[in-house]
Amino acid sequence: MADGSGYPGHDARQQLARDDAAPPVLISPRHGRRLFAFAVIADSHLEPETPGVPAPRSNLRNRSVVDWLRTRAPRFVLHLGDIVHPVPQAEPHDATLLLARQLFADLPCPVLYTPGNHDIGDKNDDTAPAAAVAPQWLDGYGQVFGAPFQVHHAEGCVLLLVNSPILGSGLPLEAAQKRWLQEQLRAAQGKRIFLATHYPPFLAQPQEDTSYDNMEHHARHWLLELLERHRVEAVFCGHVHNLFYNRFGATEIHALPSTSFVRRDYSELHSGAPTDEYGRNDTGKLGFFWVDVYERGHVARLVQTHGGTDTLALQLPGHPKDPGETPLGVNLCHPWCAQVELPFNPPVDPFARRRVRNDHAVQAVWSAGIRHLRAPIDDLLDPQVRRRVADMVALGHRFTFFSVGLPSAALLAQLRAHAPLVGFWECVLPVRAAPELAASAGAMLRETGIRLLFAALRSGTEGNTGKAPGKHYAAPGFTVGQCAQAGELLAGPLAGVAAGVAFSVARNEPLAPAMQTLAAFARSSGATTCATRALMGDGPNDAETDDAANQALVEEALQLAHRHPEVLLLLDTFMDIDRGYYVRTGLIDRSGNWRAAGRVLADARADAARLPATEPGTTA
Question: How far apart are CA 403 and CA 388, in angstroms?
Fold first, then answer.
């Protein structure tokens, strides 16, 4: 049931306005010794097994996760609920609870459980597709997995496991849990606090309407207020079988994928056709989290299982909190944080559309270790997207925002207001307009410290596309052969105004000599030198969809970017352009799954992220 009215006594919109107006609060990177590590599993949905019959697919997938974790020796494993698939009123429910306990008992560490709606019943909602939580189901769960809410301590950190299906139930246990949580938070004052829940507090906005996939707004208000007051470091939640990342003040909120299957309603996040089983078996979306806790900060990594049972294939991915980065940036051609309205449709939301955000591209950026992101200036001007930019900048990302034409006074005012979010401002202009740019933007640039990149406009109108006659083309950036002209601009009308210039390297242009030339230009001029390597073909009707060829291009670009750090090298698309003009595959497909070219970067960062089971001076 929609509320849409904010929270009594706590206006989340004011919180968002504060975050939007101020410089981004940096999320703590990892610092100091690694204290310990733990794993987080969500929505295992184990099925009943019959002797003599092959085990269900979900069970096999979870056994492979257990096998991998046995070799990693986490301090503990946290399970976020929906341990089993049969709902409590289904006949095989109780037997499947016992099977689940037996499966996870193979782990050589404590397993901490918080119940999901499949374990004890749905939250109290007249529109819910299954029966609401009931005392007898709570008792049955407790006999197998213990107390329905718990506290766990490790190395000065406190983990609080909240029973979220009972919130709003009116059961005596709900009031007891509220008192317990408030007492535990008071007792944890001065310590680092992590919290686990099955239902996410929210998916896209703190003030979003109540739906099947978030907490009812009164319960949400109560919990968010506690998170803010006690500066909880992180919340881990399940239920949605998809990745969502949010930041509420100083708290990071991680919604996890399932280890078993994807909820089919979330196939609507993607503009391509659904994958296997109408999206349920989109194996690129399956996985669990490995969380490294340091003396200061934590790193929550998505370990992708791809639905397989080969534990040797699993690897720890990179993360923006890790030291170092991939020396390649990307163009975010597609909207990368747009909210999507899911259709109203049984069983989970037959009466309203849910607004959610597709975070799979962001997760891929993290896993590949990409920090430098290039996007149009509209991403800075749109308040909703700008809040997401602030989340990314808080994690260490740098944005180049590009605009075309001489900037208006309104644009200069917006750049001034949001300068902390701007890594570079790239202005795409005809070369003849450089003096006007210096006159109009110079004062703002000097006052804010924003770094300007000048990108020569190449278009048919300007007569400098660099393409054969008749090929329609318009693009930003000097060609490599125009280094002398770029240098003259920096030394002349843009002196003291521009930090550097942007270049473009065509797909059919050899990259190695181009990078040598640009590196020499950067050294001689002292200017920031940015270059975009095109993955598109020569003409608008060309299609560059050979995965092996694109993989080779990205491998070469990665090697040359390491060799020539003087040049900031970007790739011209992150996600496939699979329709329209200049069709080409990118690093991920339209479902957010890896292409071979993207896997090059993900594998490179996974190698850098490998950690021993223990580090000097620590214990597992």
Answer: 19
